[in-house]
Amino acid sequence: NAGVTQTPKFRILKIGQSMTLQCTQDMNHNYMYWYRQDPGMGLKLIYYSVGAGITDKGEVPNGYNVSRSTTEDFPLRLELAAPSQTSVYFCASSYSQGAMSNQPQHFGDGTRLSIL
Amino acid sequence: KNQVEQSPQSLIILEGKNCTLQCNYTVSPFSNLRWYKQDTGRGPVSLTIMTFSENTKSNGRYTATLDADTKQSSLHITASQLSDSASYICVVRPYSGGGADGLTFGKGTHLIIQP
User: Fold this and answer.
1) Are B11 and B112 in contact (CB under 8 A)?
2) Is B42 on the interface with A (CB under 8 A)?
């Protein structure tokens, strides 16, 4: 029962470096999401995808990019790391998220990223 | 702007006691309200999902209630156990006619169960 798997679990980057946070799910969910969780704050949506080949911006997309070439994978790319991107990043997936959807989101265990 | 406010911010209770966590929201109209449990160092896990027409939903020792008129929800934990120590997050989904980007997350209540 893997569910949503995120790698790496921890990472320290220097300012200006780039990296890709990996996310894969084995539940055949169409919808996938990337959130960031800052201390004492609610989760904020960065990007989401409603299916392979389709992505859209969330509330805080600046400084990030995503792609969705397969149903299973939804990587998040940081091109020029900045201290403001220090956070815990969560990937999630769900069957659907239409207006009346009651499907829960399934979360990975997060990637803890520090930019120094 | 849609908001979800949770109280208290943190709570410490003794093992075996009951407790109630509160969630007030301004999202209107809304589709459903969710409670998630987040253990330290882990991702959130869904506890309950209630539609606007439901008043209560249980999941074992967890019971969520919803008053859509006053825009309030509560999560009641019965006979607390050490494993209940976690953050509890209230999430509200507006009725937006579609789209996957409308969830509003509360900041969570940090619950500590002491032996």
Assistant:
1) yes
2) yes
Query: Nearest-5° angle of CA B2, CA A68, CA A53?
Result: 95
Could you identify the residue written with the tokens 């790391």? A81
Q: How many CB atoms are closer than 10 A to CB B45? A: 15
- Residue A102 has its nearest CB partner, among B32, B96, B99, at B32
Strand order of the β-sheet with A76-78 is A4-7, A19-25, A76-78, A64-66
State yes or no: pLDDT of A100 exceeds 60.
no
A104 and B4 within 8 Å at the Cβ level: the answer is no
Q: What's chain A's average pLDDT? A: 93
Q: Would you call the peptide bond into A104 cis, given omega within 30 degrees of 0 as the criterion?
A: no
CA distance B18 to chain A (A): 25
The SS3 call for residue B31 is strand
Exposure class string for A11-40: b at 16+ Cβ within 10 A, else e: bebeeeeebebbbbbeeebbbbbbbbbeee
Q: What is the pLDDT of residues A23-48, one digit of tens each?
A: 999 999 999 999 999 998 999 999 99
From residue B22, give the alpha-carbon distance in Å to each of A85, A87, B12: 30, 26, 15
Check pLDDT > 80 for residue B99: no
CA nearest neighbour of B54 among B30, B20, B78, B77 = B30
Collapse the DSSP code of A84 into the 3-class scheme (helix H, G, I; strand E, B; otherwise coil) and give the result. helix
Paired strand residues for A111 = A89
Across chain B, what does the average pLDDT equal?
92
Positive or negative: CA dihedral A56, B43, A100, A103: positive
